[in-house]
Amino acid sequence: MSDRTVAPWLKSTLELGPVLGFFVAYLWLKDETYTVGGIAYDGFIAVTAIFIPVILLSMAILWRLTGKLSPMQVLTAVLVIVFGGLTVWLNDERFLKVKPTIINLILGGILFLGLFRSKSLLSMVLSEALPMDEAGWMILTRRMAWFFVASAVANELVWRTQSTEFWVTFETFALPGAMFAFFISQAGLIKRHSLEDDAT
User: Fold this and answer.
1) DSSP state letters, 4-40
2) For 189, phi and psi rounded to 5 degrees?
3) Where does the sequence pass through the membrane (predicted)?
C-alpha cells in the first residue's frame, strides 16, 4: 500500500483523540465502580478497558488512510495491549501506569545504542523534517536519549507518589508538553547545524 497524506487535523485527531478521550472519560467515571463476574472494577480500570480498542481502532484508521504507521505508534499499540490488558485482567492499575516508563526507557535505550555505535538513529526518523549535519544529529540524539530517561524517571516518581487523577493529568498533558518544550529548546542547535542554511 503506497503512502498517502491526510488532512493535518484528521491525523492529529486520530493520534491525540484517544488520549484526550481517556482523560475525559476518567474524570467522568473515576468515582464509579462496576461489578463483572463478581469482581469490582473502579473507574480507571473501566476506562482502560474502553481505551484499548479505541486506540487500536484509531491506529487502524490512520494506517488505512495513510498506508503507514510510525515505529513509535506500533510500539505504543503493542504496549497498550500488553499493559492495558494486564491492568484489566489483574484489576491492577499499576500496569498501565508503568507503560510510559517502559516506552521512554526503550526509546532512550535505542538511541543510546545508536550513539554507542556512533550513529544517530534519531536522524533516520526526523532527517526529512529537520535537515542537519551529522554533528548536529549526534548532539540532538544524545539530548533526546537523556530526555527519554528523564521522562521515565518523572513518570515513576509521579505514579508512585501521587494520586491516580494527578497521574492521568500528568500523562495526558505534562509529558507531551515536556516533549514540545524540549524541541523548542533545541531551536538554536537545529539552526546552527541546519543544512538548509548551508545551501543558501
Assistant:
1) ----HHHHHHHHHHHHHHHHHHHHHHTT-EEEETTEE
2) -60, -45
3) 12-29, 41-62, 74-90, 96-116, 166-184
Burial class (CB in 10 A: 0-12, 13-18, 19+), 23: middle
Question: How many angstroms separate the CA atoms of 187 and 197, rounded?
Answer: 14
Q: pLDDT, tens digit, for every residue of 106-125?
A: 999 999 999 999 999 999 88
Q: What is the mean pLDDT of residues 167-187?
A: 96
DSSP the chain: -------HHHHHHHHHHHHHHHHHHHHHHTT-EEEETTEEEEHHHHHHHHHHHHHHHHHHHHHHHHS---HHHHHHHHHIIIIIHHHHHTT-THHHHHHHHHHHHHHHHHHHHHHHTT--HHHHHHTTTS-B-HHHHHHHHHHHHHHHHHHHHHHHHHHHHS-HHHHHHIIIIIHHHHHHHHHHHTHHHHHHTBHHHHH-
- This prediction has a pTM of 0.85
